Amino acid sequence: TELKVRRWSSVVAMGREGTGKKRKDREGGNNEERREKKVRLSQPLGVGSSEGNDQKLIVVLEKACLETVKRRNEFELLNCDDHISILRANKRPLNDARPDIVHQCLLNLMDSPLNKAGRLQVYIHTQRNVLIEVHPQTRIPRTFKRFAGLMVQLLHKLSIRAADGPMQLLKVVKNPVTQYFPAGAQKIGTSRLATPSVYLGKYVKTLRPGPVVFTIGAMAHGAVEVDYTEEEISISDYGLSGALVCSKVCTAFEEIWGVL
Length: 260
Fold this sequence. Notes:
By secondary structure, this protein is an alpha/beta fold. The protein is about 40% helix and about 20% strand.
């Protein structure tokens, strides 16, 4: 009996030692995880920014041609291909009806790695002073016909929801657009008339840390005149389409923030 008691005591003691070791190992593992977490958090998040949330590009597509017109008892998106007679009857230039430019700009912006990384926010400001917020998860229709139908629905219902949930992918919001800018954001305008032209890749490196707003014209001709930009730049010696400007701006920030 004494032998059994001794053996049982040694087993219990060994069990306690094993439990203590496991507990120490767990605590040691947790401490290591905490240290690794601190190391990860202390690592630099990218050039031109001190915080992850500050690495944000806001693009405002100004003077967008998005307007509905009624034809054959149905509403359509006004465009220069299908509604020439309506434009001429109202003595309006064909360039006033170019929603295809907005479509091309949105395709470049929403398909960019910058947007997929969660570092892009897009707003559309139309010629009729309608402000539209585009959710980063929005998938823009590839064909113009489907895009036109989507825009007509948006302008009439004021929002477009996701098919599988309550999320609003597109919605009409209140003006002015400046109320949606992060505090301290730099506001840069783009214009063909600005001099001298700058190398965009080098220019973005000179910006102070924090979110950046870029205003890009989404119309065929003319200048964007807004009162909220701090600086106006030209990124080429040649006239560029709005879609190409959107692509170049996204690429410049992808390079500086290390987005692949």
